[in-house]
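Students often ask why inverse folding is considered easier than folding. One informal answer: many sequences map to the same fold, so there is more than one right answer. In these notes we will look at a single instance of the problem. The structure comes first.
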């Protein structure tokens, strides 16, 4: 038995190999994440006597190259949650934190839990691309929110509150009408310096050029609103240029988000569970691919409770002697991205109030019981995940001609 502990970092890893009774086969050594470095590691491991199992921490990014390479080389590879490694074997007063010590600790974990290790299985390319696209989408959305807030703060000095006058939905390219409007009329004096008739003509011309519907009443509303404002920045070339410079990156990010949504939908449609996921209420063309991206292959979850725990929505029991806790809290140790997507789905259910939907009925039941907002929202997300698991599992079993609930592979 050779337990190989790999402490993964960016571009390189520290490797330690031990056998039972604490015998160190090889002192910790560094391996670079290059074709040459990994080939040397594979050749070295193949020369060891006895069974070899490799254990590394799941980091989400840095572990993937070395885990895939060693898996393809035919080794037993186990990617273990960092929390399990952190809590293992902390029986020393001294607090030692080095790559060598971590590699030995991971190797000891693999030796102790030799028979309980779960073999690593690489994600298929479609799911991997979908997950990466979703992470890029979430990051771009944060940038968009920041840029949007920055533009509003700037307009508070030139055209305060103009963003509240428009309610048109997003265009297909992700642009908003109020943003396009201030690109043309970036200062309140751009409106108030004109008579109502002149502004109405210019507004009509702008609507035709930009592809928006013209409304005489809206032109009058904007003109009247602009007259009530007191801008703090003067209307000049420099001020208008600042507004335009604030709009350019916002529109660029909006276009990026649109392209990412299109790509995520295309990838999601290639997966077998897409028809079932898209049929769930509250899951549209945006949240559906995001949900599938974060859950991944449903076949890796043995039970529905495993999926709930993966999302961090499980409330483990707490009991000691005669005491049994009835006010248990969610662990929130799972995927925060998945919890965020589920929360958005719950918000969609509350906004649309589908009376015949089981999850919505459950939300209303918990609300009627007097549960706090976040309590019934997370409880609804828990129920939604259980329904998701059952329907997707049943659908995939039917596709492969297996009995319901059978262990299946969902690779495409």
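Output (designed amino acids):
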């Amino acid at each position: 038995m050779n337990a190989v502990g790999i402490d993964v970092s960016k571009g390189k890893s520290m490797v330690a190999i031990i056998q039972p009774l604490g015998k160190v086969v090889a002192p910790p050594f560094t391996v670079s994440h290059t074709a040459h470095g990994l080939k040397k590691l594979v050749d070295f491991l193949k020369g060891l006597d006895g069974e070899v199992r490799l254990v590394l921490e799941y980091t989400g990014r840095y572990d993937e190259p070395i885990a895939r390479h060693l898996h393809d080389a035919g080794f037993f590879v186990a990617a273990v949650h960092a929390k399990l490694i952190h809590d293992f074997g902390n029986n020393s007063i001294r607090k030692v934190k080095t790559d060598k010590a971590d590699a030995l600790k991971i190797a000891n974990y693999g030796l102790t839990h030799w028979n309980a290790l779960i073999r690593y299985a690489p994600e298929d390319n479609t799911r991997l691309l979908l997950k990466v696209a979703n992470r890029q989408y979430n990051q771009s959305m944060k940038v968009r929110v920041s840029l949007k807030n920055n533009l509003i703060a700037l307009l508070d000095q030139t055209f305060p509150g103009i963003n509240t006058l428009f309610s048109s939905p997003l265009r297909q390219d992700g642009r908003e009408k109020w943003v396009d409007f201030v690109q043309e009329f970036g200062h309140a004096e751009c409106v108030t310096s004109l008579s109502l008739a002149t502004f109405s003509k210019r507004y009509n011309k702008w609507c035709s050029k930009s592809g928006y519907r013209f409304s005489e009443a809206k032109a009058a509303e904007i003109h009247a609103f602009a007259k009530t404002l007191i801008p703090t920045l003067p209307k000049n070339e420099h001020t208008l240029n600042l507004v335009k410079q604030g709009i350019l990156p916002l529109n660029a990010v909006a276009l990026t988000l649109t392209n990412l949504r299109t790509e995520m939908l295309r990838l999601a449609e290639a997966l077998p569970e897409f028809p079932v996921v898209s049929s769930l209420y509250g899951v549209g063309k945006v949240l559906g691919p995001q949900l599938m991206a974060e859950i991944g292959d449903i076949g890796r979850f043995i039970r529905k409770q495993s999926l709930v725990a993966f999302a961090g929505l499980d409330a483990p029991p707490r009991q000691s002697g005669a005491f049994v806790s009835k006010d248990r809290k969610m662990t929130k140790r799972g995927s925060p991205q998945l919890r965020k997507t589920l929360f958005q789905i719950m918000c969609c259910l509350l906004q649309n109030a589908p009376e015949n939907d089981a999850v919505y009925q459950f939300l209303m039941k918990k609300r009627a019981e007097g549960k706090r907002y976040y309590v019934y929202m997370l409880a609804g997300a828990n129920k939604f995940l259980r329904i998701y698991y059952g329907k997707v599992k049943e659908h995939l079993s039917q596709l492969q001609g297996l009995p319901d609930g059978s262990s299946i592979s969902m690779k495409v």
